[in-house]
């Protein structure tokens, strides 16, 4: 077919979007750039258009004050450009595991129009979803209309991660650079956390890592390990160095051996160049990658996630600060459970011991009022701070509290002990 007859300008393409439509934007670094801006510029033509996406590295023009009558954002993961809209009430938060989003799309959230970003087509007419497969591919498959920004700079990434041009209704040719995230600054605190986490990783383990200073710090201390693998929701630049150093080989993986498996990637231009046409990198939809039973098929699965605070029973809050929605559940629970089901698996919650420049302990008697419990105390295995490792699985509430106080910041151990004494009618020897 002559797919170029589908070429369209952004202004022409968005005519396919009607009042009251449910629209899905692709995710993270693959967020469409042209259509969102065009919609905001022509807002008077639109009423009550519901727009779903998760994390977005775009400008979020449709999220600005005053556009509530025209566009309403619905999400299960808050980001920097959507937190104000959620806090002010002109966006809606939908509690949902990341892995369940593909099932939600077309059901609880119908997909009238999917607005995606793809690579240019190969000789057989297939475009890659590039750096974002996750819910993007399922959304495109379920949408009544598909608008694709076909970006010459989008990497071609393997796995179950492509769409044929015949499945696209409007093609907007473009050549803008993908948004990038600079490498995080790693302090001495993150280094200590990374050192402790790395001590739990055995040779031949398969890792799930997120993005940020803590995951990158963990990677710094894995250079002496052998034949590590990757099965993760996402990965960033830190993984590349260990692949090039021969530490991450995937040789001992019991699922997808030799492959770096993820559902999206996000980082620098160097990362995007690394995954482009790399036969060792495979992206799959999130309902596969984040399925705990799929995760568990990797022996020695090690899940490493960060969190906001942990209470003395082991309940973990990772997505909200009291009533303020900060992020979302993502895949944290699924990987904690997948690691627990894995033969030889471990899950880790890692965080600095304090927040607000040392003014607040992250290990607390009670979670902040209104905070969501992201990972239940029944699912939490290891909690790591710069002061050490607290193993919670198989311990009583009293033993858990003692272990957590020992890895709390010294400035807060006395007050935590006072709560311990009141709750358990005994003293806590937190110095041992």
Description:
The relative contact order is 0.11. The chain is globular, with a radius of gyration of 22 Å. Strands 8-16-14-12-11-17-22-26-27 form a nine-stranded mixed β-sheet, sandwiched between helices. A seven-stranded parallel β-sheet has the order 4-3-2-1-5-7-10. It has a three-stranded mixed β-sheet with strand order 19-18-25, covered by helices on one side. Helices cover 25% and strands 21% of the residues. The protein contains 14 helices and 27 strands. It starts with 9 loop residues before the first helix and ends in an 8-residue tail after the last helix. It has 432 residues and is of the alpha/beta class. It folds into two domains: 3-174, Glutaconate Coenzyme A-transferase (3-Layer(aba) Sandwich), CATH 3.40.1080.10; 188-424, Acetyl-CoA hydrolase/transferase C-terminal domain (Glutaconate Coenzyme A-transferase, 3-Layer(aba) Sandwich), CATH 3.40.1080.
């Amino acid at each position: 077919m002559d797919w170029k007859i589908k070429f369209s300008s952004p202004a022409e393409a968005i005519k396919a979007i009607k009042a009251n439509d449910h629209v899905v934007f692709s995710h993270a670094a693959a967020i469409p750039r042209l259509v969102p801006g065009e919609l905001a510029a022509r807002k008077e033509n639109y009423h009550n258009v519901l727009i779903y996406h998760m994390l977005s590295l775009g400008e979020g023009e449709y999220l600005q004050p005053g556009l509530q009558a025209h566009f309403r954002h619905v999400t299960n993961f808050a980001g920097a450009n959507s937190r104000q809209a959620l806090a002010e009430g002109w966006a809606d938060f939908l509690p949902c595991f990341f892995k369940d989003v593909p099932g939600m799309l077309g059901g609880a959230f119908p997909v009238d129009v999917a607005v995606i970003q793809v690579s240019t087509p190969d000789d057989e007419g297939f475009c890659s979803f590039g750096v974002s497969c996750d819910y993007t591919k399922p959304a495109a498959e379920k949408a009544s209309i598909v608008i694709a920004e076909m970006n010459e700079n989008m990497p071609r990434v393997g796995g179950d991660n492509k769409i044929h041009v015949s499945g696209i209704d409007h093609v907007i040719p473009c050549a803008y650079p993908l948004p990038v995230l600079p490498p995080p600054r790693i302090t001495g605190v993150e280094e200590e956390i990374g050192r402790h986490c790395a001590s739990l990783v055995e040779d031949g383990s398969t890792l799930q890592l997120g993005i940020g200073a803590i995951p990158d710090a963990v990677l710094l201390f894995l250079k002496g390990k052998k034949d590590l693998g990757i099965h993760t929701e996402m990965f960033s630049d830190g993984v590349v160095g260990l692949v090039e150093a021969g530490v991450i080989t995937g040789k001992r993986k019991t699922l997808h051996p030799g492959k770096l498996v993820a559902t999206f990637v996000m980082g620098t231009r160097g990362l995007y160049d690394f995954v482009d046409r790399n036969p060792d990198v495979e992206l799959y939809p999130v309902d596969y990658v984040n399925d705990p039973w799929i995760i568990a098929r990797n022996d020695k699965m090690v899940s490493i996630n960060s969190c906001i605070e942990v209470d003395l029973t082991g309940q973990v809050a990772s997505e909200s600060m009291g009533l303020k929605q900060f992020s979302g559940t993502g895949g944290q629970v699924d990987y904690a459970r997948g690691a627990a089901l894995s033969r030889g698996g471990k899950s880790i919650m890692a965080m600095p011991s304090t927040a607000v420049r040392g003014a607040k302990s992250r290990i607390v008697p009670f979670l902040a009022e209104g905070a969501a419990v992201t990972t239940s105390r029944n699912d939490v295995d290891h909690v790591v701070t710069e002061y050490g490792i607290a193993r919670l699985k198989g311990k009583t509430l009293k033993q858990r509290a003692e272990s957590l106080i020992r890895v709390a910041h010294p400035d807060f151990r006395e007050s935590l002990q006072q709560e311990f004494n009141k709750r358990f009618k005994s003293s806590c020897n937190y110095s041992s």
